[in-house]
Amino acid sequence: MSTTENGGVSGAAPTPPVAAEVFGDRLPAAERYVELLAGPGHAQGVIGPRELPRLWDRHVLNSAAVGEVLPDGATVVDIGSGAGLPGVPLALARPDLEITLLEPMARRVAWLERVVDELGLAVTVVRGRAEERETRRRCGESDVVTARAVAPMGRLATWSLPLVRPGGILAAMKGASAESEVERDLKEIRAAGGEDCRVVRCGVGDAATTVVLVSRNARRGTSPGSGRRARGRKDRIRD
């Protein structure tokens, strides 16, 4: 493996052909994101060295696949965003989405701000924890909350469903044990306001992912996109 100009170790696999289909004219930005993960991302500890050869399939394309189950024009909060997964690939593959990256750690927030700036994404970065009242005030209620490797389903539902508008969904990326995890935590999920739990597969081949979809109890009529939050321009991070 070689060393990048940013001092990180470059060991990412070459761009797979399917990436062009997923990202379209944003493929160069997706490739730059992989470079950032393999370079400064690795150096700063947001991605582990063992993950570098599988950044495309296991992380970037895998995350973008979640977009298959998200409604058009939805507002999305990606909690515990960390390296920007799945939020950044979703923003690249689905520019119609209004995405907020929520992360509690200052160094990772700084990393996310750098990524958003370098890729020219109209994405908001917020420092905070999903379970905190101030975070919920700042983020409001969104159409979708996404999460990847954050917490068991019961705890995740308790933290995240208050950020979802009634009728919206939690889309949690999980592993092979997703169905048994939902069954185990179903009482906790329902107590948090969740219903209609479904386990679906998104993507194909090595980039496929398992997603648990949990709807928040609908108490009023809403439609996708109606959870859009009113923010001033100063709160946006743009290129």
Explain what you see.
By secondary structure, the protein is of the alpha/beta class. The protein has a domain at 69-235: 3-Layer(aba) Sandwich (Rossmann fold). It has eight helices and nine strands. The chain has helices spanning 18-23, 27-43, 55-64, 87-93, 106-119, 133-139, 153-160, 178-191; strands at 2-3, 9-10, 75-79, 98-103, 124-127, 142-148, 164-174, 194-202, 209-216. The strands form two sheets. A seven-stranded mixed sheet has the order 5-4-3-6-7-9-8, sandwiched between helices. Strand 3, helix 4 and strand 4 (98-103) form a beta-alpha-beta unit. Helix 7 (153-160) packs across helix 8 (178-191). Residues 1-9 and 220-239 have low confidence and may be disordered.
Major sheet details: 7 strands, mixed
pLDDT below 50 for ≥5 consecutive residues: which ranges? 1-9, 220-239
CATH superfamily of the domain at 69-235: Vaccinia Virus protein VP39
User: What name does CATH use for the topology of the domain at 69-235?
Assistant: Rossmann fold
CATH second-level architecture of the domain at 69-235 = 3-Layer(aba) Sandwich
Number of helices: 8
Compute the gyration radius: what is it? 17 Å
Helix content: 25-40%
Q: So what's the oligomer here?
A: single chain
CATH class of the domain at 69-235: Alpha Beta
Amino- and carboxy-terminal Cα gap: 32 Å
**Beta fraction:** 15-25%
The secondary structure category is: alpha/beta
Identify the overall geometry.
globular
Beta strand count: 9
Topology order in helix (H) and strand (E) letters? EEHHHEHEHEHEHEHEE
